[in-house]
What we know:
The complex is a heterodimer of chains A (126) and B (186).
Chain A: H1 6-21, H2 38-57, H3 60-82, H4 93-110
Helix pairs in contact in A: 1-2, 1-4, 2-3, 3-4
Chain B: H1 2-16, H2 23-43, H3 60-70, H4 75-85, H5 89-109, H6 113-131, H7 139-154, H8 163-172, H9 177-185
Helix pairs in contact in B: 2-5, 2-7, 3-4, 3-6, 5-6, 6-7, 8-9
Amino acid sequence: MKTRDALDRAALVLGVVSMVSALFVFVHGNYQLVQIRAAGLVVALVLGLLAVVAGLLEERALTLATGVAFLLAAVVQLGLLVGSGSGLLGGNASTFSLWLGLGVGLVAIGTVPRPEPTEETSQGTA
Amino acid sequence: MAGTDVAAVTDYAADIVPVLPSRMNRAVIAVVRIGVGLLWLQNVGWKIPPDFGRGDPPSGLYLSVSHAVTSEVFHPYARLVERLVLPNFTFFGWMVLLLEASLGAFLLIGLATRLWAVIGVAQTVVIMLSVLNAPHEWLWSYVLMLLVHLALFATAAGRYAGLDGLLRTYWQHSRSLWARWLVRVS
């Protein structure tokens, strides 16, 4: 049975982290680790789901694409902060930080070359 | 030749023996790393551009940094803040935001962890020099911050449930300068 590569599992975990971060839409005050609101909720859920799917299907290209999408979302969030507001994505600098981490992590995983498949050796029965 | 062989064996042993051999200890240090990452991640949230609290009355990051002058800790640093940082606060505010957001991001995923642990130590010292004598501050909270970053550095915390642990093998087998650098900072 083929076991999932540790890097694909890591992509899956990063996707789960993003989807769990969507729960902070319900949390306010001291316990709100990251500000997720408005379209940011869609980013967290959709890109998180894509990372999970990429991990499950062991699709490094999808992992890389999802990482790039997270980085783009982080840059857009940062740009919206320049305009002195949460803007369309509804986040703040903590949202930027989270998406930066998820993006860099997924890109790092997605750019690791897969090892060349090795030929299976038949075990002789002497 | 024998000396070389011994050195090679010793290097090999150093490579394969983990810093933290116990599974429980590795889990604990991973939790600590993630916790410290979340500390930075949450606290970058109150650094609000574009003015970062510069106004009348001052608030947020501007108020926090101005304590370096009004409640001086170290005279040369206070003069530096007064003459360079506060007059150019938009620039320094953005630098703090980007630095602390990156600290949260990289410590959370455990990538280049030893480098970011050292940067965390440096940023903690800067914060200490600003707010240590401000009202209602607790010295030990900052000392603890300093010590926990040193612990992350000493234990190479990204190698446990972090990307450093997964990617080091690839970096070690790569000939690129970038990969060699990542091996050193992970």
